[in-house]
Amino acid sequence: MTQVDEMREQALPLEEETDLGPLLDRIGDARCVLIGEASHGNHEYYAWRAALTRHLIADRGFSFVAVEGDWPDCWAVHRSVTLVPTAPTDPRQALDGFRRWPTWMWANLETTHFCRWLREHNAELPADRRAGFYGLDIYSLQDSLRAITAYLARHRPEAVDTALDAYRCFEPYGECPQTYGRLVPPDCADEVLELLARVRTASAGTDPDRLNAWQNAEVATEAERYYRIMFEGGPHSWNLRDTHMADTLDRLLDFHRADAKAVVWAHNSHIGDARATDLADTGLISLGQLARERHGTGDVVLVGFAGGHGEVVAAPSWGGRAEIMNVPAPPAGSLEALLTEAHLTQALFICSDAPRASWLNDRLEHRAIGVVYDPAHDRRNQVPTRLGERYDALGWFHRVSPIQPLHAESAARGELETMPSGV
Fold it and tell me: Is residue 19 within 8 Å of residue 343, measured between CB atoms?
């Protein structure tokens, strides 16, 4: 049997939300479900990820969604969807506030529709059972420092000077901490570590504002390290970032009730198990790998997505304006090319249903489009992958369409991601 024949035989339908039933069965009682995307700019990944998450929250009692986004921006969304009295009543207003490039990742209609649903769902629940929306990423150094200073001014005014010392240390570099990492010795490390110690002391307990302050202090500490090592080359900055995301996920699980369960939204490059790709050959780890190692494969389900040709929202360069770009037919021999050859329009695969299938065990190129993309060099966007080890399930879409950003992307602002993969 050829690999294409195997794909046809193992494909499950993925046309209606009810088709998610086999995947929900596979998820079972898992505590963490990590759901990916093969790009940061395709409607199908966002829409189906949201559909699966709605079922996990409404039917399985999942506690929160944690996304590959900045903590302060996502905290504003969290306050809206959990009906905090002083927060916007429409989550779109919070999503409109996203300003760090690339805004389209979360400031889009697909995320807006989900967050509006989440707020409506939460409105029927007591405050302590409402599902939250959090950011896992590491780039919000300046915004996090500002948030910590405001928190301490309200609750621990005697500690405000510590926050101001950290803020002033970074102030010469404005909103561009890359300059700090590139041009100066690491002379702000002591300030942010002292700040973290102060905030940890002030943030014990289960009050959400304390969680917000603590996480912002963790972001500031890890971001300072990230910008110091990002120009060294090698896997260190990538690994620090994914470890920070895994640590944040664990912190959120600990903060919530004992039976808390988490949904994670991030690029395939993060939610997939790096050990099943050539990324591991260069020493890179991933959030999905760390989740499996920390919680066990029985409590973690990794769901990837793949797409064929169509259009995607991306930028031609770092900090550039978002564009709708053509996604060409996948390169010969790749996973996506084989799925195209199988004439599957949309399909769901549960990897454990066919453990001996060669297409799940052979290393095949698998497309990964980041925030920066050049269709003329699509071959560069391939990650050799043993699919059955990288994911527990895969959603496939023969044709992909662009997401709908809420606003036009402005010129580069704030802290840019600088990993070459752009994911």
Answer: no
